[in-house]
Design goal:
The chain has 289 residues and is of the alpha+beta class. Helix content is 26%, strand content 34%. The radius of gyration is 19 Å and the shape is globular. It starts with a strand and ends with a strand.
Amino acid sequence: MRYMNEIVQTPYSNCQLLKALWRRKVVDVEDFEPLSIKLNNLTSPTQQIADFKAMFACTELPVSFLFVAAYRHLGQLLAQAKFSSKLIGLIHLSSYYKVTMLPDWSAAYDLRLSLISCESSPKGLHYIIEVSVYQQGGLCVKCTNEILDKRRDYKRADSENRAKGEIMNDTRGENIVQMSDAELAVATNQLSPKLARKYAKVSGDYNPIHLSGLLAKLLGMKTSVMHGMYNLHWSLSKIDGSEQATDVIAKFNRPCFLPNTVELTISSAGEYSLFSSQRSDRHLHLKLS
């Protein structure tokens, strides 16, 4: 593995970030280089915290708020990193949160953001991105994310299995067991394009596929898609005691096209899933311990 440089930086201004993203150049796969940046003494806007709590009707912020706090700074990392993918079209496959202690988001914190690795597979290029938050010099949470740059010629062959209602492969290549096992409903949610735009304003995630059906179609989707992280935030807000978990593993499955009605369920093994109406497609699988 190549040595990973770490650079201590100050947060980019909006102008600096846009300029860096505009000037970013894609490199060949063999020229990939790991990169880590450290941003110290950050604070989350009070209004953003209040809006997030209001949106998800939560009194305590879920561990997944780390993604919201780090989102624009991820842009700063990726704008400088040497890797061979465009930013639009990357697919978030999974997030693994290792919790030492939940941070106090109303206080100052430090972030370490790292592009760790790039591996090639028949599906495409797999990247690992780590985001860690520190307070008073101690690690609070480390989140390890798997990101896929999917090959355009990669196809799924699951139509027969879907018709049989047995096992299907999601768009990201994982096997998903259909609803043959008894699962209990925990909560339901109505998702709409308006809600996706509202979440984009709260989180800062203005990926075009979430904002408009037309923009989504221009980028190869059949219509607009709900943010996977919104579904994770909402699911955690509906799980009693989720803030006490020390390990949270979220796997994002099929795209959640809008509008949609989704249902959070729990299995006999204590694992959670987020399904669309009639439980035909699974969008999220969640394990807490």
